[in-house]
Amino acid sequence: MSEEQLTQTIYSSLQTRVTKMSTEKANEMAPQPPRTSMIGLLQYIGEPLAALEGITDKHGDIVTVPIGTEKLCIIANPKAVKQVFTTKASSFGKGHLQNQYLGRIVGNGLLLSEGDYWTEQRSKIQPAFNRERLSQYSDTVAELTIRMTNDWEDGDVIALDKAFQPLTLQVLAKALFGIELGEITDTFSRTGHTISSRFDFTELTTFVPEWVPIPKHRRYHRAIAEFDDALYDLLEDRRSEFEATDSEGSPDDLLTMLLPTCDNETIRDEVATILLGGHDTSALAIAYTLYLVAKRADIERQVRDEIAEATDRKPTLETLEQLEYTENVAYEAMRLYPPAYSVFREPTEPVEIGGYTIKPGTTVVLPQWLLHRDARWWDDPETARPERWAEEDDRPDYVYFPFSRGPRGCIGRDFGMIEILGAVSVLLQNYDFSLVDNDPVSFAPALTLQPEDDLEMRVRSR
Ligand code: HEM
């Protein structure tokens, strides 16, 4: 069956399903759009961001949406988001959809593991993110950013959304695993890209079960196999080195912390989680922060002044901690263009959220994309106003969570901020960036919030 025929078949089956489910009684569930609107929902297939906006605009900020055989509950209400992340967090797991889609890639690593095993792994990994280590990581960010720009020529046009993917991969590999990725950076970067585009939600084939042998799935399975081969080679080398040296001679990094107590499969899952979960998100956050700087002369001036005042050399952790305005620009970039644009959970038991009962089997969607731009909480939401982060405000909590919140919040939050501030500082010390096109930017959401077209900038040496 061709991809086109398959798309047509899925479309028809979705239509049947949506019509059927919409006639069910809503009883205690969060409200479900009425039948006519459900059919209207089909217009959104392939446009997940417009769908989120359209559905909640029409039907409220807690709404049940049946899609195919799945039932989603979109929650764009801050009090209810807080319940899911904190007071009722113990009634939720990562859920069957995330396991089905991401399990093969990240296995039982931190992102998907649950219960006591997750607690144990998180406490083994957490020390890798303490302050002393963050200070070393900021040096790595600065060094590798400088090294990346050695290939840039004055006047080059660079696709920013792609340019920082190899950088953030190399930073993670070097800082956390003591690995110089060197030539295999391209393998990881390419496979990371193939894996991410498997989840391009603007394509209907993304909803096709993974066992169906369409070309996109074959590429995806090959990419995972290539990624695994490269990863296991690295792990075996490091384990042999580790076993051949006494513990004092071993490097002091996260990999060395895990080697004595974890087998290669366990470490593979944690390393894959960190590499795949940590590099694309940070690379996009760097790109979108620079996009705001290039787009707005007022923001650029204040960021440049602040960086120049903090240092004229390679930035250190102490330098980065002085960059309050620049940090607020990064917060605005992640408000408007959150690299992770939705968080997903599933109840493990019936649970009351925002006055409705949500049952196991329903995937809860907590969309940063909506909460970060909601005019009920944000003044002039579509405009980047870094100063809003320095003003008094009465916004409810839980309207902003680019790194998620609660016990399952991002372990790499501080690391990610160091990458953004470190890379942006080094780049602005050495270059001017100007937009070539692509303004305003439009999106093709995949695993992360990818721009639809390359985010191209012309770079000029300073
Ligand atoms: C701007 C950069 C980043 C963003 C926006 C981001 C976003 C997120 C989000 C939204 C989650 C929660 C997912 C959920 O609740 O289901 C998460 C979890 C996670 N992130 Fe990040 N992340 C970033 C950088 C990083 C970095 C640099 C690393 C690694 C050094 C990392 C490693 C992880 C891990 C391991 C988890 C799972 C944590 C757990 O469940 O215990 N992230 N991230």
Automatic annotation (TrEMBL):
<keyword id="KW-0408">Iron</keyword>
<keyword id="KW-0349">Heme</keyword>
<dbReference type="GO" id="GO:0005506">
    <property type="term" value="F:iron ion binding"/>
</dbReference>
<protein>
    <submittedName>
        <fullName>Cytochrome P450</fullName>
    </submittedName>
</protein>
<dbReference type="InterPro" id="IPR017972">
    <property type="entry name" value="Cyt_P450_CS"/>
</dbReference>
<dbReference type="InterPro" id="IPR002401">
    <property type="entry name" value="Cyt_P450_E_grp-I"/>
</dbReference>
<dbReference type="InterPro" id="IPR036396">
    <property type="entry name" value="Cyt_P450_sf"/>
</dbReference>
<dbReference type="GO" id="GO:0016705">
    <property type="term" value="F:oxidoreductase activity, acting on paired donors, with incorporation or reduction of molecular oxygen"/>
</dbReference>
<keyword id="KW-0503">Monooxygenase</keyword>
<dbReference type="Pfam" id="PF00067">
    <property type="entry name" value="p450"/>
</dbReference>
<dbReference type="InterPro" id="IPR001128">
    <property type="entry name" value="Cyt_P450"/>
</dbReference>
<dbReference type="GO" id="GO:0020037">
    <property type="term" value="F:heme binding"/>
</dbReference>
<dbReference type="GO" id="GO:0004497">
    <property type="term" value="F:monooxygenase activity"/>
</dbReference>
<keyword id="KW-0479">Metal-binding</keyword>
<comment type="similarity">
    <text>Belongs to the cytochrome P450 family.</text>
</comment>
<keyword id="KW-0560">Oxidoreductase</keyword>
<dbReference type="InterPro" id="IPR050196">
    <property type="entry name" value="Cytochrome_P450_Monoox"/>
</dbReference>
